[in-house]
What we know:
The structure is a homotetramer.
Chain A: H1 5-10, E1 16-18, E2 21-24, E3 27-30, E4 33-34, H2 35-38, H3 44-53, H4 59-71, H5 80-88, H6 95-104, H7 113-130, H8 136-149, H9 166-180, H10 187-203, H11 211-221, H12 229-251, E5 266-268
Antiparallel strand pairs in A: 2-3, 3-4
Helix pairs in contact in A: 3-4, 4-9, 4-11, 4-12, 5-6, 5-12, 6-12, 7-8, 7-10, 7-11, 8-10, 9-11, 10-11
Amino acid sequence: MSRSALDAYANGxxxxxxxxxxxxxxxxxxxxxxxxxxxxTLSYGQMLYLLLCGEVPSVKKARLLESVLVAGADxxxxxxxxxxxxxxATCGISFNSCVATGINVLGDIxxxxxxxxxxxxxxxxxxxxxxxxxxxxxxxxxxxxxxxxQGEKLPGLGHQLHDAxxxxxxxxALARPLVEEGEISGIYLQMAEQFRHQLELxxxxxxxxxxxxxxxxxxxxxxxxxxxxxxIFALSRGxxxxxxxxxxxxxxxxIKGPCPNREDLVRYSGPALRHLEx
Amino acid sequence: MSRSALDAYANGxxxxxxxxxxxxxxxxxxxxxxxxxxxxTLSYGQMLYLLLCGEVPSVKKARLLESVLVAGADxxxxxxxxxxxxxxATCGISFNSCVATGINVLGDIxxxxxxxxxxxxxxxxxxxxxxxxxxxxxxxxxxxxxxxxQGEKLPGLGHQLHDAxxxxxxxxALARPLVEEGEISGIYLQMAEQFRHQLELxxxxxxxxxxxxxxxxxxxxxxxxxxxxxxIFALSRGxxxxxxxxxxxxxxxxIKGPCPNREDLVRYSGPALRHLEx
Amino acid sequence: MSRSALDAYANGxxxxxxxxxxxxxxxxxxxxxxxxxxxxTLSYGQMLYLLLCGEVPSVKKARLLESVLVAGADxxxxxxxxxxxxxxATCGISFNSCVATGINVLGDIxxxxxxxxxxxxxxxxxxxxxxxxxxxxxxxxxxxxxxxxQGEKLPGLGHQLHDAxxxxxxxxALARPLVEEGEISGIYLQMAEQFRHQLELxxxxxxxxxxxxxxxxxxxxxxxxxxxxxxIFALSRGxxxxxxxxxxxxxxxxIKGPCPNREDLVRYSGPALRHLEx
Amino acid sequence: MSRSALDAYANGxxxxxxxxxxxxxxxxxxxxxxxxxxxxTLSYGQMLYLLLCGEVPSVKKARLLESVLVAGADxxxxxxxxxxxxxxATCGISFNSCVATGINVLGDIxxxxxxxxxxxxxxxxxxxxxxxxxxxxxxxxxxxxxxxxQGEKLPGLGHQLHDAxxxxxxxxALARPLVEEGEISGIYLQMAEQFRHQLELxxxxxxxxxxxxxxxxxxxxxxxxxxxxxxIFALSRGxxxxxxxxxxxxxxxxIKGPCPNREDLVRYSGPALRHLEx
Lengths: 278, 278, 278, 278
């Protein structure tokens, strides 16, 4: 089956087909709702969820999503995303392009663990649902066995800097009452903890969730697709990127590189001086 | 005075100096606040304002800011920002890079009028404050005179598609009660309306605010710096960009260009067939 | 083994370590050579190869590389890379950011087949070298068997538009004499043709190389690493992106979206008009 | 006069109108030439010039352009463009997106002086041509007077690091014989030197051309439009960006920020620890 856009159009598909918005003269419809009914009524978290997932989430769910967005908003200029945006701000490009420069690096490795963890969690849920005779702990153990065999790392655990990240316990504390109230199921929070706990037993050393892992569990609770995780993080870290690029812009310093001009920070390890043969 | 980063460092400045955040082991401080006290307490709008402007705004101010963010969130795939992100999603790059592609084009012209309008509004306020003997209408008239002389266009007015944009009246209706309650001064809303009204009289035809103009007035009311406007719009339209890129990703269509392969949409107007001289 | 940059630095590694260039006051050394000996001596293709691979290639090899760069330089505004850059040029961002917008979409799918084909070719070569008792045709057949089993598509074959791409025969005609002169081995050109030919026999229909496939074979002949392919294509298509963005910039048209405002080109398929419950 | 793309289309313009290339089934025409006649015939410099300016330049002119491209190709990881691309390479995004990240920062300040210098040179030429009674020295003096009055800095002079940049004398040495042969006029080289020399006399200290200034003079000699300068530099520095991002990719290090985690490199200067009022 062809996945060519040209073939789809030849077969009658519209070139640009969207269920997100309908834009006409003096009319902006978002997922069926007139925009003027959403402005001032929906929070940022509700609007993002409506655009991405198609329905308006409850206020409590949206607040939980915003908690995740706030948690990831900044990690200072040592983070490549923040540094890249700040360096861009000293190079004379449009401010939004500085922001894009920072967001462009939030890939598989820098914040991308949430997507991998969500994929694992959703898949584990499918396996657990498929065979109700096994409990969650068993399914998690099987998943860990398989990951071990394939040399895969469990996503969402460990951090270069933190081993008791203050964001994690806070996010958990915010999610727990929503489980009790039935707003979210709690299954993915439980699952994330199972993965962490069982790996700790296997490795015989303390394992800690990182903010990607906690965000992943909560985003699964909210029914957000795994493939959307990098986009959500872009809007979360995006806040910090905007603020840092703006701060650097105010410095009015020109062409700031990554580090000062010092011998211990940059090393040339290539061939010694030589000349072209003539 | 040198603006070189190297010179500043030679004179004792830290290479990376920030008043936004302090990141240490198991400690993330944002503008003085421990992050765990912000997560679940601040809304997206409050967190963005804190990061950018240094203080936590009131809930009402933050809601007004979120109204602006919601208003600009999407304008469908005919907008270059949305189309660029959707095309990127068919080309096999990281999802965040699709988002960056869309945000990269939100420049001076595509959403950038808000910054120009804010600069005008802040400057007009300074002029009005400097000479209390003139009323706002006079200062606005002088500004319009000068812009006319220099052939400058008033930013924040008119739209390719809308002439009664439903977002504008809604944003005004949300802002008005906050003026009455003293949350915001109302001076910039009044000023924007003065500019629109006086230009209408000069041009002798209906002039309508666009969403950039209304956003500019509200952002001035909130004390947001003009130079930050493109960053805020990046996080507003960013929501639509994330949703549209995700939707296109789900189509699993490959290499979608801007329009179907039809003769009426692409025209070659270069030299007729020729050959290199040999 | 940790792959953390912080750990490496803690163990004595330089933070920025490069074998490419050494920059000191009034001295720019590239791979050991003073830059002033390279300027005017090396062609673009030679300089790119020196920077990327560490040594200056022969003039003939560099010309072959430039042939590949010229071949991929443009495919008109229906290509997402070109369209994205042109749309960016109507949005008011820095010209280099328009170029970056175009290059940002040259990912796995849009031009990325060359990398996959190069990986396949290099791997096939290793397999052939490991067991001299089998001839190339046998090794290729085994690779095709395995790809078939795993449902993988052979990269570098087929095109949305062309079935006798004029670039392919030209590139082959340029490479052939270099095989005869011993400049390149010819093994990868032969291998690419074997893959194409055997697949044709299996599928019982005409299969044609595309420009990614031909570029891949030539780049393998030149000893370029597979993972560098997307970077090379960025500098090839980059020429077209620069020219098209510049042309669009000269139009001075504002906010050009992907297609005209016509009902047959954009379709909304979301929910019918609805209102928030209150 | 409207500059709206929608209005132009309503008046009969093609949506995508280009004089650069015509792409049909099995036919790729570049500025009138079939692509297969260009591949292997044109160098990179010739192809870039043809795409951008519409005609094939002489081999000597194209070589001079390539000299400029080679001269700007790399300035090591202390340059923001190189560092941004290397950091991106540790973050898990597509290789071309690493390249785009680097190119995205080559704005008005980082490499952008060439454009400003070219604008000045072209404008000075117009003034000189308009009144043949004044010699070049007089026109340059008037331009310097005016720039002084307006507080403008002469673009293309001075460098953070170099004061006798080895690239400059080499580029001049390559250009000189082409003046003698009549390939280029030499007027812009002379003009650049006049500007440098007169400023030196005014400032009473040594002033040196930088690589942007020398590139500007040569690009004017070649008839390249000023507004295209950033695109050309993108393809010049693009070589270094590709090589450095590839080198960093090979390190397989994860999330490398701008500098090591040391107290003397990052400083927090914001408010002391505080808590939200409740």
